[in-house]
């Protein structure tokens, strides 16, 4: 099925169309100075293709949120959400094929880059079954793929540039067709601009930008001066989706409008000159006179000594009664609260790779919410309890775990969880935990570190590892006499 979007007319009045299927395969670059009509062009393309293909708009100024009413786009105000929430939105958008406008209005430049990078990367990393075709329109692309670092952090710049590069270079196989607009080609990273095969070049005045635009359009340098004379809303077009030869396109009208338009002349207020003069020269409200002498007073020695010798005045009783103290909890209640809080922390999937110091703060807050004014655990004790909890052992006072906990105490605190996970599987006669399970308990994503961990525990004579002929691994804890069932290590 061939779908064409009417973009406007050429010099002779003939209609100029954009082949949507070809655009999805070849991408589009729009360039023009501020006020040349880039946003108008993008709006014309979005309105003409709405309902034909999924649309995702990265909108730094909030101009395209007006598409929500007539075309049903979902507006995501980035200021209302965190980065993990933005990433979840991106994944759901690809799954449900929803057309959205990500409005970055209200964020600083670094925040816009960070948010756009997270959103585009999450869309790029969607599973293969969600690789549906989508137009990804990025307005003011030089903000997200700059040629230089500017005043933003280097890691933010690299993340944003990587996301834009993936969109333009590798996005086609994932169904993502980049449509990027920029004020100046010289400000846009070359790796991003070079991947577009369709070009719409608007008015520009700097020689370096005209030269690059002429090169992309296949024009001679002396013909580049014509780009300077283009009227507002007129672009020179070239590409397999629009025309095989450079043509001039006058972009047609649009049905929706941006929230912020170009400044228009408005009549000045009708007031007589002397009234305006009186208004401008109106005196400010008089300030209150000082009721004290601001100069420091020299205190006589006798008066100062008398003040020092004077007994302190009794404290004035407060009219508010003190808050009643929380009832003291016995040791069993405290232990039950600790176990419940640790169970909630371990159940949080995002807590697996967080350092213990960060989780300790979460532990303290949860304990206070449960009625413990001050949890009696310090950070080292919490780290040991967290290792036990990650292994599924929440009651450390149970007699059946006394010997295993004593052996685990001879290891570093961060290794206790992996040892106890194996011990629990061995005691219950279950298969040996895989390297991935041990990695989650150890708080890492590196399987190499897990293999070194098992080797270290084995060097301490706490593990004896056996691998049978089928490649399955079993681990014995000789001091306890417990052995796991064989299982795949991978």
From TrEMBL:
GO function term, MF aspect, one: ATP binding
One Pfam family recorded for the sequence: DUF87
Q: Per UniProt, which keywords does this protein have?
A: ATP-binding, Nucleotide-binding
Q: Where is the Helicase HerA central domain?
A: 10-76
InterPro entries in alphabetical order: ATPase_Atu1862_pred, HerA-like, HerA_central, P-loop_NTPase
Q: Which PANTHER family match?
A: HELICASE MJ1565-RELATED (PTHR42957:SF1)
Question: Which named protein is this?
Answer: ATP-binding protein
